[in-house]
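Appendix C. Worked example: TetR family transcriptional regulator
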Amino acid sequence: MAHKPRKEMIAETRGKLLATARQAFGTVGYADASMDDFTAAAGLTRGALYHHFGDKKGLLAAVIAEIDAEMTERLKVITANATTPWQAFVDECTGYLEMAVEPEILRIVHRDGPAVLGDPWQWASQNGCIAGMQQNLTGLVADGAIIPVDPEAAARLINGASLNAAQWIANSDDPEATARKAIVAFKAFLSGLLLGAPASDKQQ
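Step 2, the predicted output written as structure tokens:
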């Protein structure tokens, strides 16, 4: 039997470790997830984990990056169905909050992530989020849909609000109820950017 190319073997090993760690982190949490258990479940050793991710913390960061990429793709689908650029922007912001109640995202991204990896503002993924949001806001300003606010300043403020709201949702006693309240408030917050719209329209 022919041996697999080294590049393919590396990708396969990484994939196995990510899948088993993600399952463990999502069910029992980072602190209680045993490296021996999930490496054994992947048919690998601790040495493989250290080689590919450095340590358990590095593996958590990789799992979060994988989930974050999936969330981004899901948000693209949501915004593609919006009827206007403004509605797409609102749907993207609120869609992020709606995902915060999902058990895997709630536990891994919004609870264990900040506890283990520190302030999400320092995560590499945030640069991409802010850049994308800034681009969208630039377009909305150019189209005359929103007030002529500085796009970077607005993007950073909205992104910060999103992060805090998601963590509030994830750490509350009733995430679903908290998410509903957060989304209503967030829409009201965003409506302040609209240019020349009646108050009733701003709530949409």
